[in-house]
Design brief:
With 339 residues, this protein is an alpha/beta fold. The protein has 12 helices and 11 strands. It folds into 2 domains: 186 residues, NAD(P)-binding Rossmann-like Domain (Rossmann fold), CATH 3.40.50.720; 129 residues, UDP-galactose 4-epimerase, domain 1, CATH 3.90.25.
C-alpha cells in the first residue's frame, strides 16, 4: 500500500513514516521541510496542505492518509491556525475523497478539550477549547469528519497527550536547558496537578494498531504511569544530577504575567500552555487497554530518555520543525539567569 503522511518530517509524522518504511510499506511525505535523516526509500514532496494543487499531487495513488500536518500550539499563529488546521485539513480530506482513499488516520490534540476540571478526561467529555489553537484543531476534526462521512472513508481520530521521546525539543528544549544548567524550574501552582504524557513509540504503536484493525472513532492516547507534575519533574532533576529545584508560583499572578509577556511577543509560552499547566490533564485510557494496546513508558522514563538525548546532542535539533528544533526562549532566558 502507498501511505501519504502529511507533516511527515515532524516529530510524530517522522516516526510514523520510519515505522511504515521499515515494515516494507511505500511511504510518501508531504511537508514544507525535508528531514536530513530521511530514509532513502521514503518519497518526499515539498508543499503545504493549504495548497490544493500540492495536496492533489501528493494524493495520487494513495491508499491510506496519515494526516499530521498542523500549526502546533507554540506557533502562536492567530488566524493562521485556522488556515492550516481547519482549511488545510479540509483540503486533505477532499483530495482523499476524490482519490478514493481507503482509510484516514487524523492526528488531533488534547487542546480540543480545553479546561475539563479535576480527574480523567473520558470519551464522554465534550470538547470546549479555550484558545485559537484548540479551536482550530477542533474545526479541523469537524471538517475531516464531514468529508469522510460523505465519502464513506473510514476515519480514525487520535488525540494524544504531550508526546516525548528522543529528538523531542520545542518547548521541552527550555525545560531541559534549564535543568542541565541547574536553574530553578518554576511551575504554576503547587505541582499537585497530574499531567500525563505519551512516548512517541507508544503513540506509534497505537497508530499501528488502528491501521491494522481499521479502527473508526476518536481515541485519547496517553501513558498509564504518571505522578504529579512535581514528582515527575523532581525525578527528572534527580536523574540529571543538577542543582535545579522545582519552585511553585502562585497561579493568578503567574498566569497574568505570562499572558502579558506573550501579548508583548516576549514569551513563546502560548495561551494553551499558561492557561492549563496548573490543572489536571490526563486521559482515561481503559478503552485502549481493552483493545490490547499497552504503553511501555512512564512519564518519568520518557522525560529521562528525552533529556538524555538532549544532553548527548548538545540541544541541537535534527530538523527545522516545531517539535524537533530548539525554541527561542525570549525573556525566559533572562528569567533563567535570575533564577
Amino acid at each position: 500500500m502507498l501511505h501519504l503522511i502529511t507533516g511527515g518530517t515532524g516529530f510524530i509524522g517522522g516516526a510514523i513514516a520510519r515505522k511504515l518504511a521499515m515494515q516494507g510499506e511505500r511511504v510518501r511525505v508531504l511537508d514544507l521541510v525535508d528531514d536530513p535523516a530521511r530514509l532513502p526509500e521514503i518519497e518526499f514532496q515539498r508543499g503545504s496542505i493549504t495548497d490544493e494543487a500540492a495536496v492533489a499531487r501528493a494524493m495520487a495513488g494513495v491508499d491510506v492518509v496519515h494526516h499530521n500536518a498542523a500549526l502546533v500550539a507554540q506557533s502562536a499563529a492567530g488566524q493562521r491556525y485556522y488556515e492550516v488546521n481547519r482549511d488545510g485539513t479540509r483540503n486533505v480530506a477532499a483530495a482523499a475523497a476524490r482519490g478514493n482513499v481507503g482509510h484516514i488516520i487524523h492526528l488531533s490534540t488534547t487542546a480540543v478539550y480545553g479546561l475539563t476540571g479535576p480527574g480523567a478526561i473520558t470519551s464522554y467529555v465534550v470538547p470546549r477549547p479555550i484558545e485559537d489553537y484548540g479551536r482550530s484543531k477542533l474545526a479541523g476534526e469537524i471538517a475531516m469528519k464531514q468529508v469522510t462521512e460523505e465519502a464513506s472513508i473510514p476515519l480514525t481520530t487520535i488525540r494524544p497527550r504531550v508526546t516525548l521521546g528522543p529528538g523531542r525539543l520545542g518547548i521541552f528544549h527550555i525545560l531541559f536547558d534549564w535543568i542541565r544548567d541547574g536553574a530553578s524550574i518554576p511551575i504554576i501552582g503547587n505541582g499537585a496537578q497530574r499531567q500525563q504524557f505519551i512516548h512517541v513509540d507508544d503513540l506509534v504503536a497505537f497508530h499501528s494498531l488502528a491501521l491494522k484493525r481499521r479502527l473508526e472513532g476518536t481515541f485519547n492516547v496517553g501513558t498509564d504511569s504518571f505522578g504529579t507534575l512535581r514528582q515527575d519533574l523532581e525525578a527528572l532533576i534527580a536523574h540529571a544530577g543538577t542543582s535545579s529545584q522545582v519552585r511553585s508560583l502562585p497561579v493568578w499572578p503567574a498566569v497574568q504575567s505570562l499572558r502579558v509577556l506573550h501579548a508583548l511577543g516576549l514569551s513563546r509560552l502560548t495561551p494553551w500552555h499558561y492557561q492549563t499547566y496548573h490543572c489536571d490533564c490526563f486521559f482515561d485510557i481503559q478503552p485502549l487497554l481493552a483493545l490490547g494496546w499497552k504503553p511501555a513508558h512512564s512519564n518519568q522514563s520518557m522525560l529521562m530518555q528525552s533529556y538524555d538525548w538532549f544532553v548527548q546532542h548538545a540541544g541541537r535539533g535534527e530538523a527545522e520543525t516545531a517539535h524537533r528544533a530548539p525554541l527561542r526562549q525570549g525573556v525566559l532566558r533572562l528569567i533563567k539567569t535570575l533564577s
